[in-house]
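Issue: copy button drops trailing tokens. Both records pasted manually instead:
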Amino acid sequence: MQPYFVVCGAAVLFAVLLIIRIRLTRSSGSRTVSGIEIGNGQTIGSRSEQDDYFSSMTTPVGTLAVVADGISGLANGRMSSTLAVTTFTKAFAKLEDATNLNGYFAEAATQSNRGILQNLNGQGGGTTLAAVIVCGYQLYYGAVGDSLITIYRNGHFQTVNSKHTAETLLEERVLAGQMTSEEAKTSPVRNQLVNYLGYEGFESMELGNAPIRLYSGDYVLLCSDGIQEALTEIEQEEIMRKGGTPQEMADAMIDTINDKGFKSQDNATVLILAIG
């Protein structure tokens, strides 16, 4: 019987080592799945708590990446962002095909909003959220709040979603002749969110009318507003032009933000997907 126990022991040891290796691989920064290399970067900035939360995963349906930014200044921002990202990833794991990805985004957003409101129980809180699914060379997205999705292609950024802030409403008033451009730029409510998860008046998130065609060599970026506020588009383009892995690019963005040392630096998170 001794050989039997030796074999069993070796099998158990192999299984344990395999699990450890998988966990170590998942905890590393950059990783490649289905031809997509993913990098991420995050800083707490000058805040006392990290309210940003992010995740990525790949299933037979495609690759999901999601970033949520708990609303600063409101309690339970961290709970809200964590709950929203967890809801989106769990729902994605259950998808069997890509026939109705907009339906997935809409339902996950509704579930997240409902869950956040239940946990808040009348207290302040909420989160922005930006999510993409890469299926083949097609990009599907859903977004609410001011976290941005962009595509870096041929040296330039293309913005995918819009910001759900009062800035948009102010610009409409400028076009209607109801206020000047200067008044809109200096308005104290310019960056105030008008739609987010955990909002009693939430109805829906922004969805793409059709998938966006991606090409080999493209980069898809998901950024919380802490990235956009600290780095200009030119600075982001310079980092991307230097090349390297998505992890090196993400690290460079965070290092640049930390080097600036802004006293009011918000939480900042970036996810970068390199399309192979």
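Record 2 (pasted manually too):
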Amino acid sequence: MAEVVAIKPAVADGPVLATQDMGVLRLTLASPPANALSLAIMAALQAEFDRVKADKSVRVIILAASGKVFCAGHDLKEMTAHRAEPDRGRAFFEQTFAACANLMQTIVRHPKPVIAEVDGLATAAGLQLVASCDLAIASHEATFCTPGVNIGLFCSTPMVALSRNVSRKQAMEMLLTGETIDAATAREFGLINRIVPREYLNQVVNKYAQTIASKSSLVVKTGKEAFYAQAEMGLADAYAYTGRVMVKNMLARDAEEGIGAFIGKRKPEWTDE
């Protein structure tokens, strides 16, 4: 039976529900209808990601949502309420965007692979959340947009994650028009990996998660870290860096075991060392 943990920083029923089963931690945004990224929900997510960084029982993380909206971005009502303060909300705005930036970077730098399971609308910082995950699998009903330009607030921070997933022209198309794209277009742009019928979404995502969870967690951690690090380097530096990573990886016990198992035509037994 899956272990169930409720995270309750601010809401009685909790803005995030955590369930763990067979090495996979599922984090579900549980604040419908919008699942907006309030400070409370970002704190709950941050706490969960931080909690399992060194937890060997967690090998993969799935990020999902309840309701018809995956995530509507920042909680604009929460932010607007602070405009009445003497600084017109500046301190709260800075706190909100800093918390969001930290959360997104935590996902990218996290040692565990993170898969977004998207069913419904992912808009603004909600799209940023999807783009920050390592993989994203969506239902046919999923839609995506960066509509800030329509309300006088350009999606500058979501732009960081978006522009690291799709081409510049495609990113600017979304950012300048604010128009919503469907799942097929999102896949064409490179924002998501796969599109599946809604009734099979959970099954497909779990299959991806279990496939990754069956690998050496040391090797997966090494590869994820190297992927994002080399992406920020020039060509020569990237090859020099990944060469060092390969040497270190070759000296790991799991590489010795995996190569030995391949040569011996047997199933490897990982020690995650």
